[in-house]
Design goal:
- Helix content is 46%, strand content 12%.
- It has 383 residues and is α/β, with parallel strands linked by helices.
- Helix 15 links the parallel strand 9 and strand 10.
- The protein is globular.
- Bound molecules: flavin mononucleotide.
- The site of flavin mononucleotide has 23 residues, from helix 3.
């Protein structure tokens, strides 16, 4: 592990190596956003503007970064956001990410669009695992997915609401991205230059949408399966749609993808147990505000007791501290977990969590902040 730490002391180092090891189409699918990708940059850029004032007279040795969500004690206030097509980005990356979350006692949200089934992944994530649902249009399919998630032992359902429309992402269109991957000349050229990725693909097999395949008509061609996917997504998750899902799920329901404080309040009134402030990593609307800029407003609107979580642009323990200071109870990351797996391999996700824990603790120690709840008192607002 000491050697891994030396080579990959922080996320930018993992990202740089991941870029060299992933085929272009997979790299662009992961890192890309929509439009001019201003929203991707805004997420990271706005976070860097948040400053802290350290206080050296206070005594804050060995700060406590543990937290509690829905009564579950967790080792740190950060975890894994749902990311679709993990097996396309870095073949076989999903189980080690899930196991690392469990081993380190942090949360893991499995995507509807994962390339491992929700049943198989629960065995890896255990009590750390939540399931993310893209509510499908077909009520029978929705019922079945919810029943499967219950049977598999998930307690928390994360309903993602910020994909009402199929959006055009230029880079994916240019790369002809499809799942399972379509190996045209361009894709083959990308893949041929990335032997680590190809070897992993040979070992783990061609990725599929494991959670959705049971509902697709049998014998579809690759193109037809793509069209099928386009037809099953719900439109807007209106109040009625949300209520139906809420009524069917016996456990906790978290809404992911909200930016507007009033809408966050509306979902809570409709029975949500928590909110993830998110703009989907800048992949849906280039003119959307950054998650970090909306977080304090959502916190203020929902009050101190609501469960408010966030994702978008978090790339260090310092960024996690910034989000917590601005009102987040919990902070998720998407792309960094893929960076870690692609750069380091199966030990990458656990290393990443370890680095983030150390960075967060180090930040709090430096500030003189003993507890997560005190971080907001260290925010620095220049005149
Ligand atoms: C490649 C990729 C796939 C994603 N797939 C999903 C998904 O299936 N479901 C979902 O709710 N969010 C999905 N997201 C959004 C993430 O959950 C999260 O909101 C976002 O990645 C946070 O930004 P970050 O990557 O800067 O940490 C995806 C994001 C990426 C980058």
């Amino acid at each position: 592990m000491a050697n891994i730490d030396k080579r990959f002391p922080s996320i930018p180092h993992m990202k740089a190596t991941a870029r060299r090891r992933m085929p272009g189409f997979a790299w662009e699918y992961m890192t890309g956003g929509i439009g001019l990708e201003e929203n991707v940059r805004r997420n990271t850029g706005d976070l860097q503007k948040i400053l802290f004032m350290p206080r050296y007279l206070s005594d804050a040795q060995d700060p406590d970064i543990s937290t509690t969500v829905f009564g579950q004690r967790l080792a740190a206030p950060f975890g894994v956001a749902p990311v679709g097509l993990g097996g396309l980005q870095w073949p076989g990356c999903e189980p080690p990410i899930g196991r690392a979350a469990r081993r380190h006692d942090v949360l893991h949200i499995l995507s509807t669009h994962a390339t491992q089934s929700l049943e198989a992944m629960k065995a890896h994530t255990g009590p750390s695992g939540w399931f993310q649902l893209y509510p499908p249009k077909d009520p029978a399919m929705e019922t079945d997915m919810i029943e499967r998630a219950k049977r598999a032992g998930y307690d928390v359902l994360v309903v993602t609401v910020d994909i009402p429309a199929v959006t055009r992402r230029d880079r994916d269109i240019r790369n002809g991205l499809s799942v399972p991957p379509q190996f045209d000349l361009r894709t083959v050229c990308h893949a041929a230059m990335r032997p680590h990725w190809l070897l992993r693909l040979a070992r783990h097999g061609i990725p599929h949408f494991e959670n959705l395949e049971p509902y697709a008509p049998k014998g579809l061609s690759i193109r037809e399966f793509g069209e099928f996917l386009g037809t099953i997504l719900s439109n807007h998750i209106t109040a009625d749609r949300f209520r139906q899902i809420r009524d069917r799920w016996p456990g906790k329901v978290v809404v992911k993808g909200v930016l507007d404080p009033e809408e966050a309040a509306a979902y809570m009134t409709l029975g949500a147990d928590g909110i993830i402030v998110s703009n989907h990593g800048g992949r849906q609307l280039d003119a959307a505000p950054s998650s970090v800029s909306m977080l304090p407003h959502v916190r203020r609107r929902l009050g101190p007791d609501a469960l408010v979580m966030v994702d978008g642009g978090v790339r260090s323990g310092l960024d996690i501290a910034r989000m917590v200071a601005l009102g987040a109870d919990y902070v998720f990351m998407g792309r960094p977990f893929i960076f870690s797996a692609a750069a380091i391999g199966d030990d990458g996700p656990a290393h990443l969590i370890d680095v983030l824990k150390q960075e967060l603790r180090g930040t709090m120690w430096q500030l003189g902040c003993p507890r997560l709840a005190d971080l907001h008192t260290f925010l620095h607002k220049p005149e």
